[in-house]
Amino acid sequence: MEIIRLRQGEKSISITETLPFSIAILDQIYDGDINLAIDDVKGSQVEKDLNVIRTLTETFDNIVTPENYAPIEYEEFLEYLSETELSIKSFARGTFSGFQDKILSIADRGDYDSAHQFLDLLMEANVDEASVCELKGTIFLESGNEEEGINWLQRALKIDPSLVSAYSFLGQTFYNRGEFDKAASCWEKEITLSPDHLVTYFMLTDAYINGGRTEEALNVLMSLSRRDPDSILTRVEMADLYERMGNTDMRDRVEQEVLEAKPVYINDMEPWAKIQFKNSKFDVVEEEAKRFLKEDPDRPELKMLLIVTHVKKGLCSEAKRLMEDFENEQVWYYYGKKELFDEFLSEEERRQCGIT
Fold this sequence. Notes:
It comes from Mesotoga infera. InterPro entries: CellSynth/LPSAsmb/PSIAsmb, TPR-like_helical_dom_sf, TPR_rpt. The chain is mainly α. The protein is built from 21 helices and 2 strands. Among the domains are: 1-95, no CATH class; 279-356, no CATH class. β1 and β2 (11-16) form a beta hairpin. α13 (232-244) runs antiparallel to α14.
């Protein structure tokens, strides 16, 4: 088994073919806690390797790194276990956190079968069953197997009903399948567990609207507005929903609130600006867009808004200069947002400033 013998003064260090495996165990299963690892594998070859690793780290840097063991694929991992006469259950006090990162990396490259094989090892090792079930569910969803993904996520939630991310994944899956009531049920539970997940309120609103539950959608938006009064997007969504419900008085009231507000969040600029544009308030949009651009000069949506304000003020040269930036660097974004010009600039204005 010994392949290299290192000598340092009177000290002799044996490097065996199982050393990379032992480094992987220490890194991916024990988070580098060598004492805990040694306690779990006493009397094995891995214990000897771990003592070698301890000695090596006294002299060399960066011993416990993936470069010194990666990649160890599933079949090779089993061979190492057999050679060292260990099983996955031998690592009783390991966290397996790095092991789970390894599984995600395997899934990311599309090798879903290997990812599930490693997950089955985690199940055998009795590693946080709910988290393993959730991980299996998300990987099944990623691979396109929705039914298995749903089954495993639901299994995870039966074990641990507090898994917020499992509700999120399930909700998105049901929503994509057009099962809006099921999606809403998942997102309701997610919000109960994590009321600060603000984006989930919008997702729940969409599920209610698509399910024909507009009053419940409005209640969600009102709740979100109370939780985050600075969110202009919430109020814009409320105005749109009031219009959908035929309540023009409330729509106008909420739009007036938006008109009188100033955006706090940069992501609120575009919905806020559209309300301002509808009311010909181009100067205030230009002022706020420039303010945010000082903080973040690379936001294309702000430059799109400035193009509209420049054209409205007859500053075609300024508008063209900004347009050239899109044509040279971000033409994809321009065509994705071109409807902004179609909505707020007349055909003659676009023609005069060379906007096609």
